[in-house]
Amino acid sequence: MIKKVAGRFQRLIKLTAVNFAVLASFIELKFLLTPMIVYASDTDQFSLKAPKNGDSFQVITSYINQRIPAIQGLSAVILILACIGCGTRLGISSAFGDPRGRQEALMGIFWIIVAGILVIHARQIVGMGAS
User: Among residues 110, 121, 120, 49, which one has the least CA distance to residue 83?
Assistant: First the structure.
């Protein structure tokens, strides 16, 4: 019994280490590679969708446009941490044979993916809403 629990605990530690390695590589790419891609682009997709008439729209859209990248970065890190938590819960529930916990973890990962899609396309969503 002790060997069985120790084996499950070792698998949990390995799963957690892999999740943190994925998080570290994501943060490295987010803060090192993404600014290079942003600075290399010629046009700003948000300004193409933002309305050109009316000062109030310009003020609101520029205010939102300036704050979205910081919110996207913070949201991405929170989503990665939530995915680590759901992945760990998925591993634990699979190791101990808990189908309800496994299903809840899978639903959590599904909603994390949906939220990730919204975070990635936040600028386009705001641009479409402003036009």
Answer: 110
